[in-house]
Amino acid sequence: MMKRILLFLALAVVVVSAKKNKMKLPCVYMGTFYMPGDVWKPHPCARCECGNLHSECDIKTCPACDGKEGAVGVDQCCAPCDGKAVKPTETGFCSWRGKHYEDGDEFTLNECTDCSCDGGIASCVVRSCEFQECENGEPASVAVPGYCCHFCPENVPA
Description:
It is a single chain. The protein starts with a helix and ends in a 32-residue tail after the last strand. The protein is 15% helix and 33% strand. By secondary structure, the chain is α+β, with helices and mostly antiparallel strands. It has helices at 2-21, 88-91; strands at residues 27-29, 32-34, 39-43, 46-50, 55-59, 64-66, 84-86, 93-96, 99-102, 106-110, 113-118, 121-126. Strands 3-4-5-12-11-10 form a 6-stranded antiparallel beta sheet, with no helix packed on it. The protein has a two-stranded antiparallel sheet with strand order 1-2.
C-alpha cells in the first residue's frame, strides 16, 4: 500500500511539473498508468497507445458470419463461424465481439472507451483520468460503476 501511495505522489509531482514545462503526460487506463508512446493490448482485438493524457485504440474488425457463430474464447478476438465469413469492408459495417455496427455508428465498449465505425474499421478513443489527491492525502481510489475515473471518498456521486 505504501508503494502505491508513493507512486501516486510521485506521479502528482510529475503531472504538475509536466504541465508547467509542457512535457508529455501519462495516461491512465482502467487504473494502470502508461507513459506516452507505451502500447498495450487490453483485449485480444484491441491495440492501444498512450498519447499526451489520452489513449487511442484500434480495434480489429471481425467478419460477419453468414451461418452460426460459435462462442468467443477469452483469448480470441473473433467468434468462429460455421458458414461463410463476410469481411466488414465488403458491406460497410464493423463487427466486434458478436455485435454489428453500421458505418457512422458510435458505441461504447466500457466506461472508458468510446468507438465509432467508419468504412468497416472500428476506431476507439480511451478517456484518461488525471491524478486526484483526496482530502486524506491519498489518491482517488473509489471505483463507481458507470464512471471511468476513480473518485475520492468525499466526491463519490450519489
